[in-house]
Amino acid sequence: MEKRPSVDELREIARRARIETLKAIYLAGSGHPGGSLSIMDILVALYFGGFVNVDPKNPYKPDRDRVVLSKGHAAPAFYTILAFKGFFDRELLYTLRKLGSPLQGHVSRKHTPGVEASTGSLGQGLSIALGMALKAKVDGANYRTYALLSDGELQEGMTWEAAMTAKHYRPKRLIAIVDNNNIQLDDFVHRVNSGIYPIEEKFEACGWHAITVEDGHDFNQLLEALEEAVKVSEEKPVAVRAITVKGKGVKFMENNPAWHGKAPDREKFIEAMKDLGVSDEEIEEFLNKYDRKG
Amino acid sequence: MFLYTKDAPKGDLRKVYGETLVELGKKDPKLCVVDGDLSTSTKTAMFGREFPERFFNVGIDEQNLVGVASGLAYDKDRTVFASSFSMFLTGRAWEIIRQHVGYNDLPVKLVATHTGITVGPDGASHQMNEDIAIMRAIPNMRVVVPADSNILKKILYKVYEHPGAFYVRLTREKFPIVYPENVEFELGKGFVLREGKDLTIVAIGLMVSHALDAATILKEKYGVEAEVIDPVSVKPIDEPLLVESAKKTGKVVTIEEHSVIGGLGDAVASVLAERYPVPVKKIGIPDTYGESGTAQELLRKFGLMPDQLAERIYDWLKGLK
Fold it and tell me: How far, in Å, CA of A263 to CA of B34, rounded?
């Protein structure tokens, strides 16, 4: 395996990924920036921290690790990571949500290499991941299966059907990661339906090992939690609750439910780029080249 | 070519399903089966006893049942059979079926039992009369309805060999044998089980044998010669066969133990409306719910017994003139 980048290098990858993700959403004119930015560091830790064994040249090789993006609306972040890993050209990100693009509004295995399951309808990914983990058991395969969940989708009963069933079958190497940004479409999660809390205890009651990451944007904490998850998942399924900030990295989006599911206008886009440390020249060059809304 | 007589012996569809799963499981070490606490009734338990490591009884959670089946099948390197009662499998888990099995055309074979009003005493909560409608609305989903246990066996082998998504509709009731054991099933190909010139009856499932009995009554009592067709697959449906028969008879009646909304009747009517418009009479469960009773009592209540069918068809024909 390649050497793991330093924490500083991971941070820089995440910063560049946030920039590309927001460019894609801006050009698309729609999409979900908040949840894409909150999960970004988790994705970078997984894919660049050495936790996901994938080969972009052979995206569906049988022994690859599976990553099911249950929160399928974080598609822009996921596509950016896949592009950074080399699954497809980065320019393709700028076709997000456009007619004929392989980059659908919510991830689709039919359309995009590196996607494991077609999602977008919430609450289904843990069950799909469970099926994939059980397949490894049937086949005697050693791959890991990750399910990336939102906190809001823990309100879907199907998530807990899968959690309980995982206790019964105890497949190895099944890891759920909850991107706990505490915001769903309408409002803060604790205001819409606070019943999802406590999260760790629920998974533990379902026979899972639970890990809390107090700052889901701190790579030291993320890497440490993932190391533990990988180890314990040899014995039982593991749930990682990563406490994150919705819209992380862009001040006006941070912790603001309004930025769950809308694209920034030109002015706000430029402000976001500046927040992420993009130079005026780079912003102007990008807009001149790609922004036909101008 | 077909065996059916008024006193034909009955065949157990669920038993044949269980036995065939065991045969397929011996043949294919990758085959997996998922059920939801109804395996002793759907008969997938027969597979589970032989191959416990490839059998997943996930309990009473049909959304998760379909999710797990999809997760097992996403790489398309194996066939997965998923079973429950139809109400819970196709009804409860419809959107999971659409999102994964249908959208990605996964090799997940949904085989549901307990369809129609012949579910009987359990009543409306268990009598699934809308499954064909909601399954055929899903792109990629193929919908097959066996008329007896002999063709079911052939269907299951074809469904297993096919790379894509299927819905196979079984029932709780045993059906009279209609086909010989050496019948061949081909997706989208129907059978003319009786030839006639005055009207065409298109029927599926248990209603195939009822339609054949009704055709005999129509001939004996009213001198009407009915052609009887079993399309077997409702989606894709045998369009050339339907058009050819409609051209010959000029009148079509559909009979199904399913709602008249969205099922066989609508599938047949759509084909004929586009290609050869003739009057079509849809017979099935009207826009209502079932209730408790024996299968036979309920079939009579809904006018689906052969004598009732013959009379309803004859009345409709009279009204056309």
Answer: 42
Tens digits of per-residue pLDDT, A215-263?
999 999 999 999 999 999 999 999 999 999 999 999 999 999 999 999 9
Structure tokens at B310: 């013959």
pLDDT digits (tens, 9 = 90+) for A115-153: 999 999 999 999 999 999 999 999 999 999 999 999 999
- For B53, nearest residue in chain A (alpha carbons): A138
CATH number at residue A154: 3.40.50.970
Between CA A219 and CA B188 the distance in angstroms is: 56
Strand partners, A179: A150, A242
Contact call for residues B145 and B112 (beta carbons, < 8 A): no
Residue A224: predicted pLDDT: 98
In a domain, A1, yes or no: no
DSSP for B2-21 reads: ----TTPPEE-HHHHHHHHH
Q: Is A205 helix (H, G, I), strand (E, B) or coil?
A: helix
Whether A16 maps to a domain, the answer reads: yes
- Secondary structure class of B253 (helix, strand, coil): strand
Q: Do A121 and B95 touch (CB under 8 A)?
A: yes
Say how far apart CA B222 and CA B311 lie, in whole Å. Answer: 9
Alpha-carbon gap, residue B56 to B33, rounded angstroms: 6
Nearest alpha carbon to residue B281 among B268, B295, B271, B296: B268
Contacts with B70 from chain A: Cβ below 8 Å: 117, 127-128, 131
Are the CB atoms for B171 and B209 separated by under 8 Å? no
* Share of residues in chain A with pLDDT > 90 (%): 98
Rounded Cα–Cα distance for residues B164 and B104 (Å): 9
Query: Chain A residues with CB-CB distance to B under 8 A?
Result: 60, 62, 108-110, 116-121, 124, 126-135, 138-139, 157-158, 161-162, 164-165, 168-169
Give pLDDT, residue A165. Answer: 98
The overall longest dimension of chain A from CA atoms, in Å, is 56
Q: Could you give all domains of chain B from N- to C-terminal order, each with its CATH number? A: 10-176 (3.40.50.970), 191-320 (3.40.50.920)
Q: Concatenated DSSP letters for B127-193? A: -B-SHHHHHHTSTT-EEE--SSHHHHHHHHHHHHHSSS-EEEE--SS-EE--S-TT----TT--EEE
d(CA A112, CA A85): 13
Query: What is residue B109's three-state secondary structure?
Result: strand
How many structural domains are present in chain A? 1
Asked if residue A2 belongs to a domain, the reply is no
* B51 in contact with chain A, both atoms CB, cutoff 8 A: no
The b/e string for B79-98 (b: 16+ C-beta within 10 A; e otherwise) is bbbbbbbbbbbbbbbbbbbb
Distance from CA of A36 to the nearest CA of B (A): 22
Q: What number of helices (H) and strands (E) belong to chain A?
A: 10, 5
Summarised one tens digit per residue, pLDDT across range B57-84 is 999 999 999 999 999 999 999 999 999 9
Interface test with B, best of A68, A107, A119, A134 (most B CBs within 10 A): A134
pLDDT at A294 over 60: no
Burial A81-118 (b: 16+ CB within 10 A, else e): bbbbbebbeeebbbbbbeeebebbbbbbbeebebbbbb
A275 phi, psi to nearest 5 deg:
-55, -35
Is residue A201, in this structure, part of any structural domain at all? yes
Q: Give the structural domain span for A20.
A: 7-290
